[in-house]
Design goal:
The chain is α/β, with parallel strands linked by helices and 118 residues long. It has 2 helices and 6 strands. The strands form 2 sheets. It has a 4-stranded mixed sheet, covered by helices on one side. Strands 1-2 form a two-stranded antiparallel sheet. Helix 1 (35-47) packs across helix 2. The longest helix has 13 residues, at 35-47. The chain is globular. The chain starts with 8 loop residues before the first strand and ends in a 30-residue tail after the last strand.
């Protein structure tokens, strides 16, 4: 099987890309604001072999719920919304910490490799 050469990315204790083994990931279909249901689903997915989990964060309430969900799971959690993507609990450097004194926030946009950027 042919695989493109990609950058290596470390997510917690997991490594993806660069010829590393493909990791199983899934996305929850619960309302993220429902911490109990979301955590239960993540635990079932983990037992089934899921190694990275994604949750949608469409509201402020969902963002608050992510904090509690992260405390109750053991696999890396990727949270995404309409215009954002976070790898919850992981930071590549203290330089990228957002705090009450943050003056500038940068935006990264991914266009899926399309040439027209639309």
């Amino acid at each position: 099987m042919y695989r493109d050469h990609t950058k290596v990315v470390k997510i917690g204790d997991r490594v993806i890309g660069g010829g590393n083994p493909i990791l199983i990931q899934s996305m929850t279909n619960t309302r993220t604001e429902d911490v109990k249901a979301t955590v239960e689903q993540i635990h079932r997915l983990t037992e089934a072999g899921c190694e990275i989990i994604r949750c949608t964060v469409p509201t402020k309430e969902a963002a608050e719920a992510i904090k509690e969900i992260k405390k109750q799971i053991t696999i890396p959690l990727v949270a995404d919304g309409a215009h954002i993507l976070w790898i919850v609990g992981y930071r590549i450097s203290a330089y990228y910490k957002v705090s009450s004194t943050t003056k500038t926030i940068f935006e990264i946009q991914y266009y899926g490799g399309r040439e027209d950027n639309e």
